[in-house]
Amino acid sequence: MEILLFILFFIGLLVFLGKKSNRPRGGGALRQRPVQRQHTPPPKPFEAKTASPVSRPTVLEGPAYVVDGDTVRIRKTQIRLFGIDAPEMNHPYGNKAKWALLSMCKGQMVRAEIVEEDAHGRTVAKCYLPDGRDLSAEMVKIGMAIDWPKFSGGIYRSLEVPDARKKLWLADARQKGRMHVWEKFEANQNKRSSGN
Predict the structure, then answer these.
(1) Taking every pair of C-alpha atoms in the chain, what is the biggest distance, in angstroms?
(2) How does DSSP classify residue 35?
(3) Average pLDDT over residues 17-23
(4) Which of these, 31, 34, 149, 175, could form a disulfide with 154 (CB 3.0-4.6 Å)?
(5) Mean pLDDT over each residue of the chain, to the nearest integer
Protein backbone atom coordinates (compact mmCIF):
# COMPACT_ATOMS: atom_id res chain seq x y z
CA MET A 1 0.00 0.00 0.00
CA GLU A 2 2.80 2.40 0.78
CA ILE A 3 4.34 1.62 -2.58
CA LEU A 4 1.04 2.38 -4.31
CA LEU A 5 0.76 5.73 -2.49
CA PHE A 6 4.36 6.52 -3.38
CA ILE A 7 3.72 5.76 -7.10
CA LEU A 8 0.54 7.91 -7.13
CA PHE A 9 2.41 10.74 -5.39
CA PHE A 10 5.26 10.46 -7.93
CA ILE A 11 2.82 10.51 -10.93
CA GLY A 12 0.99 13.53 -9.46
CA LEU A 13 4.30 15.34 -9.01
CA LEU A 14 5.26 14.65 -12.64
CA VAL A 15 1.87 15.91 -13.90
CA PHE A 16 2.15 19.03 -11.73
CA LEU A 17 5.68 19.81 -12.90
CA GLY A 18 4.75 19.11 -16.53
CA LYS A 19 1.93 21.68 -16.46
CA LYS A 20 4.10 24.24 -14.70
CA SER A 21 6.89 23.96 -17.30
CA ASN A 22 4.45 24.88 -20.18
CA ARG A 23 3.56 28.23 -18.56
CA PRO A 24 5.61 31.36 -19.21
CA ARG A 25 7.22 32.92 -16.19
CA GLY A 26 5.02 36.03 -16.23
CA GLY A 27 1.55 34.49 -16.32
CA GLY A 28 -0.73 31.67 -17.19
CA ALA A 29 -0.68 31.68 -21.01
CA LEU A 30 1.07 28.96 -22.95
CA ARG A 31 4.46 29.70 -24.47
CA GLN A 32 4.60 30.35 -28.18
CA ARG A 33 7.44 29.41 -30.40
CA PRO A 34 9.63 32.37 -31.36
CA VAL A 35 8.98 33.81 -34.83
CA GLN A 36 11.88 33.31 -37.17
CA ARG A 37 12.91 36.55 -38.85
CA GLN A 38 14.64 36.77 -42.17
CA HIS A 39 18.03 38.35 -42.08
CA THR A 40 18.22 41.45 -44.29
CA PRO A 41 21.58 42.76 -45.38
CA PRO A 42 22.54 46.28 -44.29
CA PRO A 43 21.66 49.06 -46.76
CA LYS A 44 24.24 49.97 -49.33
CA PRO A 45 25.91 53.37 -48.95
CA PHE A 46 24.64 56.29 -51.07
CA GLU A 47 26.34 56.52 -54.44
CA ALA A 48 25.83 59.83 -56.22
CA LYS A 49 26.95 58.34 -59.55
CA THR A 50 24.11 55.84 -59.70
CA ALA A 51 21.44 57.88 -57.88
CA SER A 52 18.63 59.45 -59.85
CA PRO A 53 15.80 61.71 -58.72
CA VAL A 54 12.28 60.40 -58.45
CA SER A 55 10.58 61.06 -61.74
CA ARG A 56 7.75 63.55 -61.66
CA PRO A 57 4.96 63.64 -64.18
CA THR A 58 5.93 65.67 -67.23
CA VAL A 59 2.34 66.69 -68.01
CA LEU A 60 -0.45 67.63 -65.62
CA GLU A 61 -3.99 68.25 -66.74
CA GLY A 62 -6.98 69.49 -64.83
CA PRO A 63 -8.88 72.52 -63.63
CA ALA A 64 -6.54 75.34 -62.63
CA TYR A 65 -6.84 77.24 -59.36
CA VAL A 66 -5.38 80.71 -60.04
CA VAL A 67 -2.98 81.92 -57.34
CA ASP A 68 -1.84 85.15 -59.02
CA GLY A 69 -1.10 86.50 -62.50
CA ASP A 70 1.61 83.96 -63.30
CA THR A 71 0.88 81.06 -60.93
CA VAL A 72 -1.77 78.33 -61.00
CA ARG A 73 -2.35 75.13 -59.06
CA ILE A 74 -3.29 71.95 -60.90
CA ARG A 75 -3.91 68.76 -58.90
CA LYS A 76 -2.20 70.16 -55.79
CA THR A 77 0.93 71.15 -57.76
CA GLN A 78 1.73 74.85 -57.78
CA ILE A 79 2.90 75.85 -61.25
CA ARG A 80 4.70 79.02 -62.35
CA LEU A 81 3.83 79.98 -65.93
CA PHE A 82 6.85 79.63 -68.19
CA GLY A 83 8.78 82.68 -69.39
CA ILE A 84 6.66 85.56 -68.11
CA ASP A 85 6.43 87.87 -65.13
CA ALA A 86 3.15 89.28 -63.85
CA PRO A 87 2.76 91.79 -61.01
CA GLU A 88 2.58 90.50 -57.45
CA MET A 89 -0.80 90.67 -55.73
CA ASN A 90 0.16 93.70 -53.61
CA HIS A 91 1.64 95.59 -56.59
CA PRO A 92 -0.15 97.79 -59.12
CA TYR A 93 -2.20 95.64 -61.53
CA GLY A 94 -1.65 92.52 -59.36
CA ASN A 95 -5.37 91.88 -58.82
CA LYS A 96 -6.20 92.66 -62.45
CA ALA A 97 -3.58 90.16 -63.63
CA LYS A 98 -5.00 87.46 -61.35
CA TRP A 99 -8.57 88.10 -62.55
CA ALA A 100 -7.47 88.11 -66.19
CA LEU A 101 -5.83 84.70 -65.77
CA LEU A 102 -8.84 83.45 -63.82
CA SER A 103 -11.23 84.49 -66.59
CA MET A 104 -9.14 82.52 -69.11
CA CYS A 105 -8.92 79.37 -66.95
CA LYS A 106 -12.45 79.32 -65.51
CA GLY A 107 -14.23 76.12 -66.51
CA GLN A 108 -11.28 74.95 -68.60
CA MET A 109 -9.07 71.88 -68.38
CA VAL A 110 -5.55 73.32 -68.40
CA ARG A 111 -2.66 71.23 -69.71
CA ALA A 112 0.70 71.95 -68.05
CA GLU A 113 3.84 70.65 -69.76
CA ILE A 114 6.48 70.75 -67.04
CA VAL A 115 9.71 72.37 -68.14
CA GLU A 116 11.77 72.54 -64.93
CA GLU A 117 11.89 73.29 -61.25
CA ASP A 118 13.18 76.81 -60.63
CA ALA A 119 15.72 78.00 -58.06
CA HIS A 120 12.91 78.51 -55.53
CA GLY A 121 11.64 74.93 -55.88
CA ARG A 122 8.59 75.90 -57.93
CA THR A 123 7.41 73.80 -60.84
CA VAL A 124 7.65 75.77 -64.10
CA ALA A 125 5.44 74.72 -67.01
CA LYS A 126 4.10 75.79 -70.36
CA CYS A 127 0.35 75.85 -69.80
CA TYR A 128 -2.24 75.46 -72.54
CA LEU A 129 -6.00 75.85 -72.81
CA PRO A 130 -8.01 73.11 -74.58
CA ASP A 131 -8.02 75.18 -77.81
CA GLY A 132 -4.19 75.21 -77.79
CA ARG A 133 -3.65 78.79 -76.61
CA ASP A 134 -0.52 79.32 -74.47
CA LEU A 135 -1.50 81.00 -71.18
CA SER A 136 1.85 82.82 -70.97
CA ALA A 137 1.38 84.28 -74.45
CA GLU A 138 -2.21 85.27 -73.70
CA MET A 139 -1.23 87.10 -70.50
CA VAL A 140 1.46 89.03 -72.40
CA LYS A 141 -0.92 89.87 -75.29
CA ILE A 142 -3.46 91.48 -72.95
CA GLY A 143 -0.79 93.48 -71.13
CA MET A 144 -1.08 91.71 -67.77
CA ALA A 145 2.41 90.17 -67.91
CA ILE A 146 5.72 90.84 -69.60
CA ASP A 147 8.20 88.53 -71.26
CA TRP A 148 11.07 87.40 -69.02
CA PRO A 149 13.84 86.85 -71.61
CA LYS A 150 16.22 85.31 -69.08
CA PHE A 151 13.88 82.32 -68.86
CA SER A 152 11.90 82.43 -72.12
CA GLY A 153 14.68 83.24 -74.55
CA GLY A 154 12.58 86.25 -75.58
CA ILE A 155 9.79 84.27 -77.28
CA TYR A 156 7.03 86.44 -75.80
CA ARG A 157 8.71 89.86 -76.25
CA SER A 158 7.10 90.52 -79.64
CA LEU A 159 3.67 89.95 -78.06
CA GLU A 160 4.05 92.71 -75.45
CA VAL A 161 1.61 95.60 -75.77
CA PRO A 162 3.09 99.11 -76.12
CA ASP A 163 4.15 100.58 -72.77
CA ALA A 164 3.61 97.25 -70.95
CA ARG A 165 6.96 97.61 -69.21
CA LYS A 166 6.04 101.11 -68.01
CA LYS A 167 2.70 99.89 -66.67
CA LEU A 168 4.25 96.83 -65.00
CA TRP A 169 7.30 98.78 -63.82
CA LEU A 170 7.88 96.69 -60.67
CA ALA A 171 8.07 93.46 -62.66
CA ASP A 172 10.41 95.18 -65.11
CA ALA A 173 12.59 96.41 -62.22
CA ARG A 174 12.82 92.87 -60.81
CA GLN A 175 13.98 91.50 -64.15
CA LYS A 176 16.67 94.14 -64.33
CA GLY A 177 17.88 93.38 -60.80
CA ARG A 178 16.79 96.72 -59.37
CA MET A 179 15.41 95.31 -56.13
CA HIS A 180 15.87 98.67 -54.36
CA VAL A 181 12.84 99.84 -56.37
CA TRP A 182 10.81 96.98 -54.87
CA GLU A 183 12.06 97.74 -51.38
CA LYS A 184 11.14 101.42 -51.73
CA PHE A 185 7.66 100.50 -53.00
CA GLU A 186 7.14 98.02 -50.13
CA ALA A 187 8.28 100.63 -47.57
CA ASN A 188 5.81 103.18 -48.97
CA GLN A 189 3.02 100.58 -48.88
CA ASN A 190 3.82 99.79 -45.25
CA LYS A 191 3.76 103.51 -44.35
CA ARG A 192 0.34 103.92 -45.96
CA SER A 193 -1.14 100.86 -44.27
CA SER A 194 0.14 101.88 -40.82
CA GLY A 195 -1.23 105.42 -41.20
CA ASN A 196 2.10 107.29 -40.94
Answers:
(1) 125
(2) P
(3) 61
(4) 149
(5) 81
Query: Of 1, 28, 20, which Cα lies nearest the Cα of 9?
Result: 1
pLDDT given for residue 125 in this prediction: 95
Residue boundaries of the structural domains of the chain: 59-186
At residue 86's C-alpha, the angle toward residues 78 and 154, to 5°, is 100
Beta strands in 1-134, from DSSP E residues, in sequence order: 59-63, 65-68, 71-74, 77-81, 84-85, 109-117, 123-128
CATH assignment of 59-186, given 2.40.50.90, 3.40.50.720, 3.40.367.20, 3.10.50.30? Answer: 2.40.50.90
pLDDT 10s digits, 121-163: 889 999 999 999 999 999 999 999 999 888 889 999 999 888 8
Type of residue at 130: P
| CA atoms within 13 A of residue 41's CA, in its CB half-sphere | 3
What is the per-residue pLDDT for 81?
96
pLDDT at 108 (0 to 100): 96
Q: Measured between alpha carbons, how far is 100 from 78 in angstroms, rounded to an integer?
A: 18
CA angle 176, 178, 183 (to 5 degrees): 145
C-alpha 8/C-alpha 2 separation (Å) is: 10
